[in-house]
Design goal:
Distance between the termini: 26 Å
Bound molecules: zinc ion
Number of helices: 4
Largest sheet: 6 strands, mixed
Strand order of the largest sheet: 2-1-12-5-6-9
Order of helices and strands: EHEEEEEEHHEEEEHEEEE
CATH architecture: Alpha-Beta Complex
Radius of gyration: 16 Å
């Protein structure tokens, strides 16, 4: 499986990092070794002093597809969940300044904690889903899928022009504003429409 992620998909988050609001999706990937499941602890890497949390709605791809048209894109994901796109912001900043790729800031081991998935049919409107991330009992990020710049379907259409999607692939769909540093000892809890999806510690 592979993890595909979308950068700057909420205008308010693009602005908080002084990035332009994109006109086409910004794509990057994480390897399977980034995946962290079952609320295992996240071990803070030593190469960064500024690892940020980015809470994101994650789509689970349910069938293989290439050059998917917008009309059929919704058939390619059947479950959604929450994940955190941990980002070594200091490493990313150094790479951005040089025009270099972001992989070392985004794709490191354990950088993609993902909770359980729920059928998308559980939601009456997939574009009106609230989600939030609490740290040590305090809400730090709050989002709603109505604010996505590129819809789940447009992401699938765009990505599948370049990369074949396969069953089991995960798509991180971008983070709302409120990103910030995590510290050793922090307790992270993430909720999708009030249902707890992630609950783990930084070690
Ligand atoms: Zn992200």
């Amino acid at each position: 499986m592979k993890i595909i992620a979308i950068g700057r998909n909420y205008a308010e988050h693009a602005k908080e990092l002084n990035n332009p609001v994109p006109t086409v999706p910004v794509i990057f990937m994480k390897p399977d070794t980034a995946l962290l499941r079952e609320n295992k602890p996240f071990y803070h890497p030593e190469f960064s002093e500024d690892v940020h949390h980015e809470i994101e709605v994650v789509l689970k791809v349910c069938k293989e597809g290439k050059h998917i048209s917008e009309k059929f894109a919704a058939n390619y994901y059947d479950e959604i969940g929450l994940g955190i796109d941990f980002t070594a912001r200091d490493v990313q900043q150094r790479h951005k300044e040089k025009g270099l790729p972001w992989e070392l800031a985004k794709a490191f081991d354990g950088s993609a904690p993902v909770g359980n998935f729920v059928p998308k049919s559980n939601f009456s409107d997939i574009y009106s889903i609230n989600f939030n991330l609490d740290i040590n009992g305090e809400t730090r990020q709050q989002g709603n899928t109505k604010d996505l710049l590129f819809s789940f379907e447009r992401i699938i259409v765009f990505v599948s022009q370049y990369i074949t999607l396969k069953k089991g692939d995960l798509i991180f769909t971008g983070t709302p504003p409120g990103v910030g540093r995590v510290n050793v000892g922090d307790h992270l809890e993430a909720y999708l429409e009030g249902q707890k999806m992630l609950d783990f510690y930084v070690k």
